[in-house]
Amino acid sequence: MMVESASETIRTASSNQNGVSSLTSQSEGGGREGGSNGDANGEISPVDLLHLQQQQALQAARQFLLQQATGLSSPSSNEVKQSPVQVPVSMAMMTPQMITPQQMQQILSPPQLQALLQQQQALMLQQLQEYYKKQQEQLHLQLLSQQQQVGKHAKEQQQLGSKQLAFQQQLIQMQQLQQQHILNLQRQGLVGIQPGQVPIQGLQQAMCPTDLQQLWKDVASVQNADEPIKHEGLDLSTNSSNTTSYTASKVSPQIPHHPLSNGQNSMHTPKRDRARLFEWISSFTKGESSDEHLTPYSKGTPLQSSHSSHEEHTASHPLYGHGECKWPGCEALCEDMGQFIKHLNSEHALDDRSTAQCRVQMQVVQQLEIQLAKESERLQAMMTHLHMRPSEPKPFNQPLNLASSASLLKRDSEPFPEGLPHPPTSAAAPITPLRQGPSVISSSSLHGVGPIRRRNSDKYCTPIASELAQNCEFYKNADVRPPFTYASLIRHAILESPERQLTLNEIYNWFTRMFAYFRRNTATWKNAVRHNLSLHKCFVRVENVKGAVWTVDEVEYQKRRPPKMTGSPTLVKNMISGLGFGSLNASYQAALAESSLSLLNSPTLLNNSTGASLNMLHVGHDDVSSTVEQVNSNGSCSPGLSPQQYGHQIHVKEEPAELEEDSRPMSLIASVTQNLSMPGDERDMEEELPTEELE
DNA sequence: CCCGTCTTAAACAGAC
DNA sequence: CGTCTGTTTAAGACGG
């Protein structure tokens, strides 16, 4: 059917503005980077959680120290120490009493504490990374699933579009936070590199009191069993270098254990202890999520970690890297794997201490998991709120790159697998390979491309403005047919222009500039455009000095569509604003969407930025965004004239123009998607389109 | 099945 | 004469 408009050599030199790529979401996320900590975010970020934990941990540590100083201790009870080993972590956490203060004292010498803290830090770091990873993955999966769904539920998609942006942003945020946090840790020396430097605060932040207690318990017990911990670190002197505060707290028993007081932490202490923990923990974690956890360390090393046993380590080992043992606190140098294994077996053999360390790590992990759970919950809530289905795999994008999720994460907004919309029918176009999906690929994008699309597209059409605003980049680069009717697109183009009027050629340019899809088969769609201009009364041709321009008669435009949906306006609103566009008749929907736009157009509306009024379409931000676009155009140009006015001036086709819709409440206008929206008017902006305009 | 909308195709006319 | 612009008609797809 489709005539291959081969004839149309035009091709507008598909000016792929690939460079554009960056989505708004990205930009936002990126902007934040500069800002130091994720704290900036009002919400509780993982980082915050970490800090909290650390603080708590510090407190606990301090308490222990105090106890020691006081001499409350009563040595003995080795059993206790062992018991922890067997006790499930949860139990252990629950029953701090198990460990007597005395034990703690014995075990926890300042240096030890420091060591522990160090370990904790390292662990935390790892955990953090894992945590972040998980979160990211989760987000990604969800996004992917959503995208997939899109295929099926196009309508929902549209809305999702905006939501997805938010999610992507969150993703980005997370990534940033992760990076930041890691950096911070490194700076602080938390990473374990420079024990002395670690500010106690860091530790404090890392753990919660309970955790710490437990940890301490465990550790204490272990140490007892293993070796009478030497107080190498004991003397403050050793540590003193970095930790001023630390000394204080540590040294002076009298000092109240205020959480705030600084404790110090670490020092070189038990390097060896950690390794075991690691493995042990890893064995646990693996069970749950295999390699993900390992990432930080084992990234390069695939799943080997899966061999819980310490011995297996073949080529790479999670606990071995850069020629040294990565066991927490142990930085023993190992020439090769063999040596490392030996070291591991000898130094980090399965004993109480190692076990205890593992326990500690487990707790850390648990803690993190709890955090993760919370965060996940939050995410779910968010998604729910946004009407996204958390996890509904859809056949659609499956090909999507789950695998590449990692990369996706990086891009934040790139998740566009985009395997989809290749227009089967019409040939492949030169279009942009990029496909950085609009942050949100709205259903529209997914729709079929060819003629087929039409109904679907319409149906799911969201308010064009918002849709376009959100997925502007996407449409620009992806060879996907926009889910809007020619009429709506034309109207949008015209309204978007400063003058609210465009010549045919300008309209063409707008199409080509805004949609990759319209960079091919020009004969076809141009013909369609002309056809629509002529056919629809809403498009009014105005003779101009330099020729003729096309304007939009909003009244007329509004007239046409609505007829169908006799239903209550509210219904309409809901449909549009809501996710359930599907039900609406395509045309009707389109009309609605557009109507919203039109409303926006009217100058009067501009003022009402209050989004309160729901009148016409109580469109969600979608509309709003669109509104914004409109607003812009309005503002810039002829504020005074409403489209209708133009219409009145020259009603070539008809003479409607009765009422002005301006009355419409355009609360929508408020939103701000301007950024997304394209350049107000093509003429001015034309940047990419070399072609016609210039002529 | 009818009707309306939308899209595509195509014929045609007028202007440049 | 060719192209662009604009109008019109027809047909098919869709959905209510």
UniProtKB/TrEMBL annotation:
Pfam families listed in its UniProt record: Forkhead, FOXP-CC
Chain segments carrying region Disordered: 1-44, 230-270, 288-316, 672-695
Protein name stated in the entry: Fork-head domain-containing protein
DNA-binding residues: 481-554
Gene Ontology CC entries for this record: nucleus
UniProt-listed CDD domains: FH_FOXP4
Subcellular localization(s) per the UniProt record: Nucleus
Acidic residues biased stretches: 683-695
Molecular-function annotations in GO: DNA-binding transcription repressor activity, RNA polymerase II-specific; RNA polymerase II cis-regulatory region sequence-specific DNA binding; zinc ion binding
Coiled coil: none
UniProt keyword annotation of Zinc present: yes
Family annotation (SMART domains): FH (SM00339)
Annotated Low complexity bias: 237-247
This protein's record includes keyword Nuclease: no
Ranges annotated as biased composition (Gly residues): 28-37
Ranges where the Fork-head domain occurs: 481-554
